[in-house]
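__Record contents__

***
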Amino acid sequence: MTALAHAAVLTVTGWPRRVGPHLVVGGLPIATPAEPPADARVTVRAWPRVSATAGLKGLSALRGNVRPASGPNGTHLLVIGHLLNLDPVDGLMRLEVCPRVSTTRPFVVTLHATTQILQAIDPAQVGVRVTGRVLSGRVPLLLAETAEAVYAPVPGRWHGWHGRRRVAPAPLERVLNEAAD
């Protein structure tokens, strides 16, 4: 079985327009320094930032990831990572993506999924490849359309890595009371 690299890529094709620092394609603002060609459709390969409720918080792309379009307008999402959990009540699936790039820490991608997709995946499965699209709305949502088990090992540098937890500082009164005792 061939090992697949972890990835989270959203491909957006459509007519571009520049709005401040963002390139808007298909109604999605993408942070990129690239200038789109005049009067031509483009395809942009972007990296998504996703909220815990599968809302799209932002997209970013390098200059070389904005190219003339060769396919129809629309979005295509590809996520390869480790399955963290399936939530059939909320219809969500969470995947941890551990990129090969040493400057990018592992991150979690949350996607909406139908009951059929959630039931088709074995929760004990570790590596998962999910394809989907973006649902337009006030807050664009990521929707999983297919999911399959794959062999996607974690790169060696991320073995045993656990994100830093933010610990809230103790209230000042409690610290002063403990110091007085």
User: Anything to note?
Assistant: The CA atoms of residues 112 and 143 lie 5 Å apart. Helices lie at 115-120, 172-180. Residues 7-158 form a domain with the OB fold (Dihydrolipoamide Acetyltransferase, E2P) fold (CATH 2.40.50.140).
